[in-house]
Specification:
192 residues; 6 helices; elongated; 5-stranded mixed β-sheet; alpha/beta; single chain
Protein backbone atom coordinates (compact mmCIF):
# COMPACT_ATOMS: atom_id res chain seq x y z
CA UNK A 1 0.00 0.00 0.00
CA UNK A 2 2.82 2.41 0.87
CA UNK A 3 4.60 1.67 -2.42
CA UNK A 4 1.38 2.37 -4.33
CA UNK A 5 0.90 5.62 -2.42
CA UNK A 6 4.50 6.68 -3.08
CA UNK A 7 4.05 5.89 -6.79
CA UNK A 8 0.82 7.90 -6.93
CA UNK A 9 2.50 10.82 -5.16
CA UNK A 10 5.36 10.68 -7.63
CA UNK A 11 2.92 10.72 -10.58
CA UNK A 12 1.09 13.73 -9.16
CA UNK A 13 4.36 15.57 -8.48
CA UNK A 14 5.61 14.82 -12.02
CA UNK A 15 2.32 16.09 -13.45
CA UNK A 16 2.64 19.33 -11.48
CA UNK A 17 6.24 19.81 -12.64
CA UNK A 18 5.21 19.25 -16.28
CA UNK A 19 2.33 21.75 -15.97
CA UNK A 20 4.63 24.31 -14.38
CA UNK A 21 7.34 23.84 -17.01
CA UNK A 22 4.92 24.11 -19.97
CA UNK A 23 3.12 27.14 -18.62
CA UNK A 24 4.19 30.61 -19.71
CA UNK A 25 3.50 32.01 -16.25
CA UNK A 26 2.23 30.99 -12.82
CA UNK A 27 0.78 32.70 -9.79
CA UNK A 28 1.29 31.79 -6.15
CA UNK A 29 -1.11 32.04 -3.27
CA UNK A 30 0.35 31.85 0.22
CA UNK A 31 -0.92 32.04 3.74
CA UNK A 32 1.40 32.25 6.72
CA UNK A 33 0.82 31.96 10.44
CA UNK A 34 2.83 31.73 13.63
CA UNK A 35 2.05 29.33 16.43
CA UNK A 36 4.14 28.68 19.50
CA UNK A 37 7.20 30.37 17.99
CA UNK A 38 6.92 28.35 14.77
CA UNK A 39 6.47 30.23 11.47
CA UNK A 40 4.54 28.20 8.89
CA UNK A 41 3.55 28.96 5.31
CA UNK A 42 1.39 27.04 2.84
CA UNK A 43 1.67 27.67 -0.91
CA UNK A 44 -0.75 26.97 -3.72
CA UNK A 45 -0.09 27.74 -7.35
CA UNK A 46 -2.17 28.42 -10.43
CA UNK A 47 -1.23 28.04 -14.07
CA UNK A 48 -3.61 28.46 -17.00
CA UNK A 49 -6.11 25.62 -16.64
CA UNK A 50 -4.92 24.24 -13.29
CA UNK A 51 -4.73 25.08 -9.60
CA UNK A 52 -3.01 22.88 -7.01
CA UNK A 53 -1.39 22.74 -3.59
CA UNK A 54 2.28 23.43 -4.09
CA UNK A 55 4.11 23.07 -0.82
CA UNK A 56 4.31 24.00 2.82
CA UNK A 57 7.36 25.03 4.75
CA UNK A 58 8.38 25.96 8.24
CA UNK A 59 10.69 28.91 8.57
CA UNK A 60 13.14 27.70 11.20
CA UNK A 61 14.98 31.00 11.31
CA UNK A 62 13.67 34.39 12.31
CA UNK A 63 10.44 35.27 10.52
CA UNK A 64 11.72 37.96 8.14
CA UNK A 65 10.89 38.89 4.57
CA UNK A 66 14.32 37.73 3.38
CA UNK A 67 13.95 34.30 5.00
CA UNK A 68 10.42 33.90 3.63
CA UNK A 69 11.58 34.87 0.13
CA UNK A 70 14.37 32.25 0.26
CA UNK A 71 11.86 29.56 1.30
CA UNK A 72 9.24 30.56 -1.33
CA UNK A 73 11.93 30.61 -4.03
CA UNK A 74 13.12 27.11 -3.00
CA UNK A 75 9.53 25.76 -3.10
CA UNK A 76 8.98 27.31 -6.54
CA UNK A 77 12.22 25.82 -7.88
CA UNK A 78 11.09 22.40 -6.66
CA UNK A 79 7.72 22.90 -8.39
CA UNK A 80 9.59 23.51 -11.62
CA UNK A 81 11.69 20.40 -11.11
CA UNK A 82 14.83 22.51 -10.70
CA UNK A 83 17.58 22.12 -8.14
CA UNK A 84 17.46 24.49 -5.19
CA UNK A 85 21.27 24.68 -5.28
CA UNK A 86 21.69 26.62 -8.50
CA UNK A 87 24.78 26.88 -10.65
CA UNK A 88 25.50 29.38 -13.41
CA UNK A 89 25.15 26.56 -15.97
CA UNK A 90 21.47 26.07 -15.03
CA UNK A 91 19.46 28.96 -16.50
CA UNK A 92 16.24 30.00 -14.80
CA UNK A 93 13.06 30.92 -16.63
CA UNK A 94 12.83 34.67 -16.14
CA UNK A 95 9.63 36.22 -14.79
CA UNK A 96 7.86 32.86 -14.43
CA UNK A 97 5.74 34.01 -11.46
CA UNK A 98 3.45 36.86 -12.47
CA UNK A 99 1.84 37.50 -9.11
CA UNK A 100 1.62 36.49 -5.47
CA UNK A 101 -1.58 36.63 -3.44
CA UNK A 102 -1.21 36.52 0.33
CA UNK A 103 -2.68 37.60 3.60
CA UNK A 104 -2.11 41.17 4.71
CA UNK A 105 0.49 40.71 7.43
CA UNK A 106 3.29 43.29 7.54
CA UNK A 107 5.85 40.82 6.27
CA UNK A 108 4.10 39.90 3.00
CA UNK A 109 4.63 43.08 0.91
CA UNK A 110 8.30 43.02 1.95
CA UNK A 111 8.55 39.31 1.07
CA UNK A 112 7.24 39.98 -2.42
CA UNK A 113 9.72 42.86 -2.82
CA UNK A 114 12.50 40.44 -1.86
CA UNK A 115 11.13 37.86 -4.31
CA UNK A 116 11.10 40.51 -7.07
CA UNK A 117 14.89 40.58 -6.90
CA UNK A 118 15.08 36.91 -7.92
CA UNK A 119 14.94 35.86 -11.60
CA UNK A 120 11.80 33.70 -11.31
CA UNK A 121 9.85 36.54 -9.71
CA UNK A 122 11.14 39.51 -11.75
CA UNK A 123 8.26 41.98 -12.15
CA UNK A 124 5.82 39.96 -10.05
CA UNK A 125 3.09 41.90 -8.26
CA UNK A 126 1.60 41.45 -4.79
CA UNK A 127 -2.18 41.16 -4.56
CA UNK A 128 -3.56 41.25 -1.03
CA UNK A 129 -6.15 38.55 -0.37
CA UNK A 130 -9.64 40.03 -0.75
CA UNK A 131 -11.00 37.99 2.18
CA UNK A 132 -8.32 39.26 4.55
CA UNK A 133 -8.77 42.86 3.38
CA UNK A 134 -12.57 42.72 3.69
CA UNK A 135 -12.28 41.13 7.12
CA UNK A 136 -10.00 43.93 8.34
CA UNK A 137 -12.22 46.58 6.74
CA UNK A 138 -15.37 45.21 8.41
CA UNK A 139 -13.58 44.89 11.75
CA UNK A 140 -12.53 48.55 11.53
CA UNK A 141 -16.10 49.56 10.68
CA UNK A 142 -17.61 47.51 13.51
CA UNK A 143 -15.28 49.07 16.06
CA UNK A 144 -16.74 52.48 15.25
CA UNK A 145 -20.40 51.55 15.86
CA UNK A 146 -21.07 51.83 19.59
CA UNK A 147 -24.17 49.58 19.59
CA UNK A 148 -22.29 46.73 17.85
CA UNK A 149 -19.33 47.07 20.25
CA UNK A 150 -21.73 46.88 23.19
CA UNK A 151 -23.54 43.86 21.70
CA UNK A 152 -20.24 42.00 21.18
CA UNK A 153 -19.11 42.71 24.75
CA UNK A 154 -22.44 41.43 26.14
CA UNK A 155 -22.39 38.35 23.88
CA UNK A 156 -18.82 37.56 24.95
CA UNK A 157 -19.92 37.84 28.58
CA UNK A 158 -22.74 35.32 28.04
CA UNK A 159 -20.43 32.89 26.26
CA UNK A 160 -17.78 33.25 28.98
CA UNK A 161 -20.33 32.45 31.70
CA UNK A 162 -21.15 29.14 30.03
CA UNK A 163 -17.55 28.41 29.10
CA UNK A 164 -16.11 28.99 32.58
CA UNK A 165 -18.87 27.69 34.89
CA UNK A 166 -19.18 23.90 34.61
CA UNK A 167 -22.67 23.65 36.17
CA UNK A 168 -24.15 26.13 33.70
CA UNK A 169 -22.42 24.40 30.78
CA UNK A 170 -23.92 21.02 31.87
CA UNK A 171 -27.36 22.64 32.30
CA UNK A 172 -27.07 24.23 28.86
CA UNK A 173 -26.17 20.92 27.20
CA UNK A 174 -29.05 19.21 29.00
CA UNK A 175 -31.68 21.79 28.02
CA UNK A 176 -30.70 23.01 24.56
CA UNK A 177 -32.22 21.59 21.44
CA UNK A 178 -30.54 21.06 18.08
CA UNK A 179 -32.31 24.15 16.75
CA UNK A 180 -31.14 26.62 19.40
CA UNK A 181 -27.59 25.88 20.45
CA UNK A 182 -25.28 28.45 21.97
CA UNK A 183 -22.00 28.25 20.12
CA UNK A 184 -19.34 28.26 22.84
CA UNK A 185 -16.12 28.69 20.82
CA UNK A 186 -17.06 32.03 19.26
CA UNK A 187 -18.17 35.45 20.46
CA UNK A 188 -21.49 35.51 18.64
CA UNK A 189 -23.32 33.61 15.93
CA UNK A 190 -26.21 35.20 14.09
CA UNK A 191 -28.25 32.00 14.49
CA UNK A 192 -27.97 32.06 18.30
Amino acid sequence: LMLALERLTELVRNGIVQKMQKSTYASLQMDAWSSGGRHLTALCTSVPGAHFFASAYENWREDTAANSAVAVNACTLQLLGLSTTRTAAQPLPASKVAGVTSDTTNIMPATVRELGRLPLFKGCIWVPCACHVLNLFLLDQVKQVEQIKTMLVLAKGVVDVFRVQAFRRIFLRFTQSALSQLQLPVLVRFST
